[in-house]
Write a structure and sequence with these properties.
Elements: E1 4-6, H1 14-23, E2 30-32, H2 46-58, E3 65-67, H3 79-96, E4 103-106, H4 116-130, E5 138-142, H5 155-168, E6 176-181, H6 182-188, H7 196-206, E7 212-217, E8 219-220, E9 231-232, H8 248-256, E10 265-267, H9 273-287
Parallel strand pairs: 1-10, 2-3, 3-4, 4-5, 5-6, 6-7, 7-10
Antiparallel strand pairs: 8-9
The structure holds fe (iii) ion (FE) (2 copies) and zinc ion.
Amino acid sequence: MLTIGCHVSIAKGYAAMGRTACSIGANTFAFFTRNPRGGNARSLDENDIAALRSLLAEHGFGRLVAHAPYTYNLCSAKEDARAFAIASMREDLERMEFLPGQYYNFHPGSHVGQGSERGVELIAAGLCQVMHEGMATRVLLETMAGKGTEMGRSFEELAKIIALVEQKRPELSGALGVCLDTCHVSDAGYDIIHDLDGVLAHFDEVIGLERLCAVHLNDSKNPCGAHKDRHACIGEGYLGSAALGGGEDVLRAIVTHPALKDLPFILETPNELDGYAREIAYLRGLAE
Ligand code: FE
Ligand code: FE
Ligand code: ZN
């Protein structure tokens, strides 16, 4: 059975997120560890987390994919912005320990003109400060569309970050992974519409498929290589719409691919809950 869900609000707490997910036919979900514009995290309610943990077990959920706020930039040119990202990620990961065995996904950051090489160094240095040996959460770098000076636009760039962390702190290697965003990789120039097999073979060569832990399943408002990062609803963008050169076969290939089909799929499409429920049911149908 497909493990699929969407981004849900943490505003009403942890157990409420699980109940919302169940109500739309999801068996995983994503959530922001705190307000996406930054600011304080909710205070931790251990009873609430315990209630979510039993709900997840009872309903056979797959791994959850927490999302770091977009405002963190581990490779900012400003030292205070880097320090903020490091302090916030460390706190997020401490809190994730109360919900062991899940994923924590983050955007590698933007090098803001310092260059990719410096970006790689700063992100790796930041990760070495926020991760610790034996942590119960796997930290996922997200593949990015390559808007502006965004890092993570190529598999090579992600591989360099992972290799540098591994070199500095070999004990952290197993706790690092990658989340593949279908809108972002297409925008970055990887042709998953016509050659998903080839793109994943390339991922395997450069990063290794054993690092591929989760998928953000989004359609794209722009063609392959656009570097725009605008998500479309499933079937309404360049991946899933036949009128735009994609189609249902492209979506089916994604949710049934041997390298992807057992990973958690997270929808980040422009929808309300009823729209997510429809997309989840539709994609479950395609995967059968
Ligand atoms: Fe993201
Ligand atoms: Fe994403
Ligand atoms: Zn995006």
